[in-house]
Amino acid sequence: MAKLKNVTIIDVRSAKSFAEGHIPGAINIPYDKFNSFEGTEKEYPGLRKDGFNYVYCYELHCNLGPKACMKFASLGYPVKEIKGGYNAWIEHKYPVATK
Asked: By the 8 A CB rule, do 43 and 37 touch?
């Protein structure tokens, strides 16, 4: 997979699900971690303001991805949701990484 500049991929699924398989190069910020941060001053390690942050969760009907996008966007991070989440990634037979 080609490396993209100024792009971070964020998996908001549980740490256990992330360890079992994730999009290569993704970082894991589980819902309970990003949801517990309050205020606009908190920085999220790994997220970037100088590019794009692509967020995904479990599947198309999972609401963790949209919630994360709203939270990160409210703090000034440019975000986009990967529609269909990890399940869509698997269905398209894209590469998977494991811990």
From this structure: no
